[in-house]
Specification:
single chain; mainly alpha
Length: 219
């Protein structure tokens, strides 16, 4: 059955659960109202819609913007849509993704946007300069995206860029930054543990206990 955008909005609202919505919103610090739809249910409801979306030849930013104005599950839908449309995203879309990152910001959306932005940067290296600038931004969510945008790249990791971004964020007290530093180093330690050991030795005085603990997990 073909699902239109109107259909997917209706489906989500038809499956709302007010009792589940309250604790879900509370868990995410009430950053946004929730419908109370679990992740498995949301995936099932949107599977066919997202499959159809992949046949399109352009990203529908009006759809994404509408999702971002509604309950949190619609922002998750927009992110799933962006992942489905990843092959069509270009460097020109990074500024639009920045706007999403700065709106209703919390780790649940940021930690998906980082990989989406990272995918664009891998295809369009000019975006690296943007991410380097983000690593110094006053907004720590943009810095978190910059820190973690290379997660899971393995041998494709740009270690020069990674080092610059991490150094720009040493000596921080922000939990979400220090956690991100640790994650990025821990992830890359699976590919090049010697590089990570050398980084930890070189910058140990600027790394938080949290970052050191996370980064050292596999080495």
């Amino acid at each position: 059955m073909r699902l239109s955008q109107s259909d997917i909005f209706d489906l989500f609202y038809q499956n709302a659960d007010e009792e589940r919505a309250r604790p879900m919103a509370a868990y995410m610090k009430n950053i946004c109202p929730f419908l109370g739809i679990s992740k498995p249910t949301r995936a099932a409801l949107s599977k066919e819609f997202l499959k159809q979306c992949k046949k399109a030849t352009a990203v529908d930013w009006a759809f994404i913007d509408k999702c971002w104005r509604l309950e949190r599950e619609f922002q998750y839908l927009a992110l799933d849509y962006l992942k489905a449309m990843a092959d069509l995203l270009t460097a020109d879309d990074v500024l639009k993704l920045k706007e999403l990152a700065l709106s209703k910001s919390w780790w649940d959306t940021i930690d998906i946007l980082d990989r989406i932005v990272g995918g664009i940067a891998l295809k369009y290296p000019a975006v690296n300069d943007v991410l380097l600038a983000w690593s110094c931004d006053d907004n720590f969510w943009l810095r978190r995206i910059a820190i973690d945008h290379q997660l899971l790249r393995k041998e494709q990791t740009n270690t020069d860029l990674l080092e610059k971004i991490l150094v720009n964020n040493l000596g921080q007290k922000e939990f979400f930054i220090n956690k991100a530093i640790g994650w990025s180093l821990r992830d890359y330690s699976k590919t090049d543990p010697d590089w990570v050991r050398a980084f930890l030795a070189k910058y140990k005085d600027g790394l938080s206990t949290l970052s050191l603990r996370e980064a050292s997990k596999y080495i």
